[in-house]
């Protein structure tokens, strides 16, 4: 996918995820907050997510200039670094969301795959759903991928576990500590 696709995907994902996070999955279908309070909460969440997610969505393609494209910064070890970074250093929260969605869009939405296990393996993984990044289908595919991502995230947030569960809370729930 090209830069335009990744920015569109990151921006729409931040908006959708911000709205999803503003709705408390434990509060049931009847929301006690006033519409104005809910809108303020959603707007704050969207703002909080917007820049980190868009920056994350742009980051992997830095390997067009430094390293091997679709390999050096398009792999799970790089994603793991972005997931761990906030816990270790206390900054760059949410950037991993943008990096993760960049991978999804490259795997699902474009013809060439990415080397998920680089540097262990240079094999590029792809799904047959991809279209050429220059084709007229690039934008529709970007929208569909974003919509599916948001549907999955909402289902997880409402039915499995709240996505804003902190690492400590999640570890406690799993009985790790
Ligand atoms: Zn890419």
UniProtKB/TrEMBL annotation:
Pfam families: YdjM. InterPro entries: YdjM-like (IPR007404). The keyword Hydrolase applies. Keywords: Hydrolase, Membrane, Transmembrane, Transmembrane helix. The chain crosses the membrane at residues 78-99, 141-161. It comes from the Archaea. One of its GO terms (molecular function) is hydrolase activity. This is LexA-binding, inner membrane-associated putative hydrolase.
């Amino acid at each position: 996918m090209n830069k335009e696709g990744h920015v569109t995907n990151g921006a729409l994902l931040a908006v959708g995820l911000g709205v999803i996070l503003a709705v408390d999955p434990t509060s049931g279908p009847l929301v006690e907050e006033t519409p104005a309070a809910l809108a303020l909460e959603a707007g704050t969440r969207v703002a909080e997510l917007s820049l980190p997610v868009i920056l994350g969505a742009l980051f992997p393609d830095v390997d067009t200039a430094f390293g091997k494209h679709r390999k050096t910064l398009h792999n799970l070890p790089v994603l793991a670094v972005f997931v761990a970074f906030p816990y270790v250093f206390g900054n760059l929260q949410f950037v991993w969301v943008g990096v993760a969605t960049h991978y999804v869009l490259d795997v699902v939405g474009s013809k060439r795959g990415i080397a998920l296990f680089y540097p262990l393996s240079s094999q590029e993984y792809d799904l047959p759903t991809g279209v050429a990044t220059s084709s007229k289908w690039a934008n529709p595919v970007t929208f569909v991928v974003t919509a599916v991502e948001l549907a999955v995230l909402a289902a997880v947030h409402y039915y499995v576990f709240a996505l804003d569960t902190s690492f400590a809370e999640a570890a406690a729930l799993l009985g790790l500590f």
